[in-house]
Amino acid sequence: MNERGHGSNVFVNTPARHLLGVQGMHPSRITPLLDLAEHYALLNRSRKTPRDLLRGRTLINLFFEDSTRTRTSFELAGKRLGADVVNMSVASSSVNKGETLLDTAATLNAMHTDLLVVRHAQSGAPALLAQKVQASVVNAGDGTHEHPTQALLDALTIRRHFGTFEGLTVAICGDVSHSRVARSNIHLLTAMGCQVRVVGPPTLVPGAIGALGVSIHHTMEDGLRGVDVVMMLRVQRERMKGTQVPSAREYFRFYGLDSRRLALAKPHALVMHPGPMNRGVEIDSRVADSDQSVIREQVEMGVAVRMAVLDTLARGGESA
Amino acid sequence: MKPVLFENSRLIDPASGLDRPGRLLVQGGVIAGTDLPQAEGAPEGAEVIDGGGQLVLCPGLVDMRVTIGEPGFEYRETVLSAAKAAVAGGITTIAVLPNTSPTIDNPALARLLRARGEETGLIDILPYGALTRGCAGTEMAEIGLLAEAGAIAFTDGPHAIADSRTMRQMLTYAKGFGALIVQHPEDPSLARGGCATDGELATRLGLPGIPAAAEAILIARDLRLARMTGGRLHFGHVSTAEGLDLIRRAKADGLRVTCDTAPPYFDLNETVIGDFRTYAKLSPPLRAEADRRAVCAGLADGTIDAIASDHMPCDADDKRQPFAVAAAGGTGLCTLLAVTLAQVHAGNLDMGAAIALLTHRPASVLGSSAGTLAVGAPADLCLFNPDTGWIVRAGDLPGKAQNTPFDGRALEGRVVGTWKKGRRVFGAQAA
């Protein structure tokens, strides 16, 4: 595929050499990745990861948007498998981001990169890059499109607690419109058999999101009732200055997660957040730090999932 | 100049209602006759073009919405490269949008564009004048002086006049010159930052959306302003069911309003942008299937007055970008006829109606005398085989710009030859 297309479309799986998104990924491809990640989670705890697995391979973290957490997670994942990891932060202030992108692709090709982890502010940028480089591309978040490794790590966290996805109800709450995390999670969790609800003010929930197989709720009281998992999304401060939401305090009053609202969910419901959190805006500190919160476990699973992804792609195996 | 006699062709001239097999004679660069008796031989020294009973001969097409890169963006397209692409598509007259650099907001530039068209010897250029200075949407351009210099109508090209008061003033003032205003029907504040039609696909792709209603909202406002002012109004590249309904009703109410659409809006829907395919990024964005069908219906029932290519050349570097930042627009000159003929082959339009949408009807909207086979008119002609199959290939198109949204589309109908003022400008024996 190139900018002209050639018949491929969004409903067809992307080539197996890259991980560009979760959309279209079949459970038969998701489950082995989660199994492998589970295995790496155990090895990580015992500090006995196979450091020769990716020896001699080069992984470049190419971040056009700042992200300490995701970049560090990929860096650790690569290093724990023995890859040579290089971090490149590319200033995204330039107007011609696309030119930078393709020029960068040409440079990376010349360096014989094996694995390229890309974060970019524009939806579809990793897909564009994937057409131009020989390396396997992992989408580490593109615009408001997808963040596949986040969805995989969220799924792994959920599976570790419930043992299954069947019959679970997950509420994804907050700024769904601008969230790649929400989209990837919706694709993955619905594919695995979960009931997914999205909850947020109508200005932050796209009207067409129902077509992705979720139910839409505009009050937390309605959305959280009886759910097994409450997944909070980060809300950008700039969205709460009167364009989409009047103020942060109004947002917290109606859409923040506090203990009172969490009590509407099932008794041992999990609280998740992709981080970084805005305490007191979308989530109350007592909830974030409570026994029900698995936010730190998500971070731990993040490294394991990324190891599984890098391992799978480096072996040229099946992925999306 | 040698006389040319077209034999054994189906002559179609929507302006006069002509549609029958026949012979057409060109002498001295003008059409000398369309009803030569079969018994009469070719004039002395005439070149004879035999249509073999399969070819259609119609007026050279009149394309009322074309962007070219000149002046200012010659790396995308020059007048000459656009002219070559046009004649390869059977087009002999193009109306050119004014949002160049500089914009066509003074009389000298309008004259320059007309002259540049003549220099090519291939096509006539009918320049649009800028509606506002610099196409910036605020101060009136010199409509009277531009009209005197040959500006055919007035528009800010791909930018709608956002301010209602300004639009009211423009319609009111232009009326004094009988000038036509062409509006890009899209509410600019709803469209701001968007690059795909709001809906499931844009949501899946994480692309900022533009509601389809942005079109109807602006059309509703402008129809009301046209009624208030009596100004003449035309909407370019209309692409939604709701927008067409408003225009259909306004016409039924007797308002002097017209509109055109472009081939992508009746031949493609939004799904072709899947996988972030920037060659299918257009403005207005491609629509849902229901809107595409509504555009087909608008063509069939006559609500739509013209089909224009909406040719918008882009360089590969303008398109090889993440979708939201890539340039919008597609080339359309050499695919205009064949994509329109797909409507004929599909049974939505008869051949005469299709040719009318490409010749006489856009010419009438613009008040141009082009687009007819009238005896004594300049012999601008398009000869085509409606059944020849071909596949559109970006990279192999005539002209400079290759950013077609129809890449890979199999089409039926190909231009065999194009004549400008009696001279062959495209086809096997182009002089």
Key features?
heterodimer; A: Rossmann fold; Rossmann fold; 5-stranded parallel beta sheet; 9 strands; globular; disordered N terminus; B: 431 residues; alpha/beta; TIM Barrel; 6-stranded parallel beta sheet; 29% helix
Tell me what the structure shows.
Chain A: It comes from Komagataeibacter rhaeticus. Chain A: GO terms for molecular function: amino acid binding; aspartate carbamoyltransferase activity. The complex is a heterodimer of chains A (320) and B (431). In chain A, 38% of the residues lie in helices and 14% in strands. With 320 residues, chain A is of the alpha/beta class. Chain A folds into two domains: 143 residues, Aspartate/ornithine carbamoyltransferase (Rossmann fold); 152 residues, Rossmann fold, CATH 3.40.50. In chain A, the strands form two sheets. In chain A, strands 7-6-5-8-9 form a five-stranded parallel sheet. In chain A, strand 3, helix 4 and strand 4 form a beta-alpha-beta unit. In chain A, helix 2 packs across helix 11, helix 3 runs parallel beside helix 4 and helix 5 crosses helix 6. In chain A, 51% of the residues are buried. Chain B has a single domain, classed as Metal-dependent hydrolases (TIM Barrel, Alpha-Beta Barrel). Chain B is 29% helix and 23% strand. In chain B, the strands form four sheets. In chain B, strands 1, 2, 3, 4, 5, 17, 18 and 19 form an eight-stranded mixed sheet that branches. Chain B has a six-stranded parallel sheet with strand order 9-10-11-14-15-16. Chain B is of the alpha/beta class. Chain B starts with a strand and ends with a strand. The model of chain B has no long low-confidence stretch (mean pLDDT 96). Chain B is globular. In chain B, strand 7, helix 2 and strand 8 form a beta-alpha-beta unit. The longest helix of chain B has 17 residues.
How would you sum up this structure in a few lines?
With 320 residues, chain A is an alpha/beta fold. Chain A has helices at 27-46, 68-80, 97-110, 125-132, 148-162, 180-191, 220-224, 248-255, 259-262, 285-288, 295-314; strands spanning 58-63, 84-89, 115-120, 136-142, 169-173, 195-199, 215-217, 229-232, 270-272.
